[in-house]
Design a protein that fits this description.
Shape: elongated
Number of domains: 1
Order of helices and strands: EHHEHH
Distance between the termini: 33 Å
Strand order of the largest sheet: 1-2
Number of strands: 2
Largest sheet: 2 strands, parallel
């Protein structure tokens, strides 16, 4: 999983950036090569961008991809909640140090 936290206005833009950067022939060939070297199945490895806003909003395509690899609605809900908690902690630290 390739997780990124962005503002709500940049969810789609960030998704497309991650896809264009990592879902290409060179990266996919490297995944196959590394899996072959480690006697693993390359079909078991997939680049999955997970794009969330700092307010816990999950980009729809990220949610679909997470469900495809076996995440439950509860798992996804936990990810969103933890994103909110992490953002609040970062904000708290920022405010205390300024």
């Amino acid at each position: 999983m390739d997780v990124t936290i962005v503002s709500s206005r940049r969810l789609a833009e960030s998704w497309h950036l991650k896809i264009s950067k990592y879902d290409n022939l060179a990266t996919n060939a490297m995944i196959v090569s590394v899996c072959t070297d480690n006697n693993s199945e390359s079909c078991a490895v997939k680049h999955t961008p997970v794009v969330l806003s700092d307010r816990g909003e999950l980009y729809q395509k990220s949610g679909l991809e997470l469900r495809k690899i076996g995440f439950t609605d509860r798992d996804i809900s936990d990810i969103c909640l933890l994103t909110i908690i992490g953002s609040l902690k970062c904000y708290d630290v920022y405010m205390r140090t300024t």
